[in-house]
Amino acid sequence: MTATTPPTPTHTHTPTNTNTHTEPPTTPTLRDFYENPDVPVASGTPRTLRQARILAAALPTPGATVLDIGCGDGTAAATAAPLLRGHRLIGVDWSQDALRRASTHLTHVVRGELTDNGLPFATGAADAILFSEVIEHLVDPDSALDELRRVLAPGGHLMLSTPNLAAWYNRALLLTGTQPVFSEVSLRAIHGRPGTEVVGHLRLYTARALREFLTASGFDVVRITGAPFHGVPRPLRPLDRLVCSAAPTAASILLAHARRRAGD
């Protein structure tokens, strides 16, 4: 675009009393943050596969409608798709950049939001929802779960994953006065804990808190299991995998399988 030069004033008088107002610079919002292509929008493969296996076992009859809400760049849904053959998998996100990338992996992608009936689906239209590493980014998780419950059919499955505030290494870090991994105090940089990648986490859950929250939101929790975290240093990964199996409440990532309570 070529800028135009404003016309030169035809007088030279300068008012002594002006009401000029300079607009303050616009502060970036969370939407701006998540529309930034440099912000990671993919879940880890191990937890995606664990979720998909659980969901595949829960959906033995083909033809289910499965929504991957907060699908990001679509790689998680693409990873899960071979285990969900025969079902219709739809990626949903509000980030236009994420949807552009997801469209290279998924046949069906749509834009939607998690508040005020913002998901473009009829009530009870979905048989299952994948909700991977989304809830920790939300300002209003209560309204989000209300909307998920609305689009799920009674008895429909919710597969939710989120980082664990009470992960085994976070318990040790807190004892030393160190900020827990996964927590963030700024959208500009990491402070007070290991790591350098800012991903916009606003809320963190323990297994107990997640179970209580889902129950209060109209879901029956079937099971909460654990999954490893790709960011754990390589020498500690065998221990991370062991904790996931032996003590899920101390696992890096929490995987919750819940069902929409009938009648709510």
Automatic annotation (TrEMBL):
Domain of life: Bacteria
Keywords: Methyltransferase, Transferase
Region (Disordered): 1-44
Enzyme Commission numbers on file: 2.1.1.222, 2.1.1.64
Membrane-traversing stretches: none
Any Gene Ontology biological process: methylation
Enzyme class per UniProt: transferase
Low complexity composition-biased segments: 10-24
Molecular function GO labels: 2-polyprenyl-6-hydroxyphenol methylase activity; 3-demethylubiquinol 3-O-methyltransferase activity
Protein name: Class I SAM-dependent methyltransferase
Organism the protein comes from: Streptomyces flavidovirens
